[in-house]
Amino acid sequence: MDTTTNPGNDKPTLMAPVRAALDRTRIADGLAPLAFRLYLAPVMWMAGSSKLAHFDSTVEWFGNADWGLGLPFPWLMAALAMATELGGAVLLLLGLGVRWISLPLMATMLVAAATVHWGNGWLAIAEPGGLFATERTMEAAERLSRAKAILMEHGDYEWLTEHGSLVILNNGIEFAVTYFILLLSLFFSGGGRFFSLDFWLWKHLNRQVRT
């Protein structure tokens, strides 16, 4: 059924103006992909830069089965992850090849979620309550309470927490999944209208094809 007209009647319904107003906002639909790109670009850049700055230890962590990831070909895997994140950050910022670079970045997030974060549950920061709380996060809350008591007794707790509360990192899959979902959206939407090089390149190519 057409939601903008009455059955058997060509007169528009009351929803027609609302739908028309919403349709007019599509001129700015490039803002959402732009926001996703600007959010993800520094995240990927910092992850890649950290691997580059500590490349030898990253390779060791990738390959060590006892305390690391135990991945095969650790030098190659570390180099690919680093290049994907650094290159991906630049391409996302420029809005160039967004759909293409989203694929290896999504793969990187899946590998990170499966090998690094999966065993820790969902939460990135340990919380004692809520839907995603686990025995692990509840125990972390007890440890955090003990740490706060020690700092209050033996340290300048107000200074230590002046710019933020103390927390315990749970390192769950929360952030990796969030980044994956944003990248998945970019894979289908592309870099977005007006604010990406992809848009202007395609516009130029289409103009040349017509002429």
Automatic annotation (TrEMBL):
Superkingdom field: Bacteria
Keywords, ordered alphabetically: Cell membrane, Membrane, Transmembrane, Transmembrane helix
Chain ranges passing through the membrane: 73-96, 103-125, 179-202
Localization (cell): Cell membrane
Membrane topology: Multi-pass membrane protein
InterPro entries recorded: DoxX (IPR032808), DoxX-like_oxidoreductase (IPR051907)
PANTHER family: DOXX FAMILY PROTEIN, OXIDOREDUCTASE CATD-RELATED
Family: Belongs to the DoxX family.
Protein known as: DoxX family protein
Provenance organism: Banduia mediterranea
Higher taxonomy: Bacteria, Pseudomonadati, Pseudomonadota, Gammaproteobacteria, Nevskiales
